[in-house]
Prior knowledge:
Blueprint: H1 3-24, E1 29-33, E2 36-40, E3 45-49, E4 52-56, H2 61-89, H3 94-122, E5 128-129, H4 131-156
Antiparallel strand pairs: 1-2, 1-5, 2-3, 3-4
Amino acid sequence: MSIMSTVTVAVSVYTWGLCLISTVSPYWTYQNQGNQIIRTGLWRNCTVHGVTSDCKKPSEGWIHAVQALMIIGVLVLFLSMVCGCLKLKDESSSKVAIVATLSALLGGCLVAAAVIVFEEKDKHNSSKFSAGFCLPIITAVTAYIAAALFAVSRRDTGYTPLAP
């Protein structure tokens, strides 16, 4: 078990955790309109008047697309994490390393796409992006880092080329 593989799995676990937290976070946007505060997440929009709160499920089609992208991203990054753990157990398994690398790349692309769609559709509101929106950006970046680390750790452990 190499240090590089251990670091790679740790980055993969961190990435999956960030993706999961950002998916369930109710704080993607924040808007202060004098006596009321509007919080928007992927799963509900809440308007707070003093001590009372009124929450509704979002009904726009684009938010359902963002939800789907984030859920699939969580699942794909989980696959990357599991494959990374399997690779940690058996350093010689190059197919598992390939799956871990590709799933980390795909997960990063899915999360980045979700952020782009959310930002594009929500930019006409006067709301400010909050922590729940920033976490998927960090998730996408760390997913790409995990993919690069998986590829480098695969190369460092001595793989055989796939060519005949």
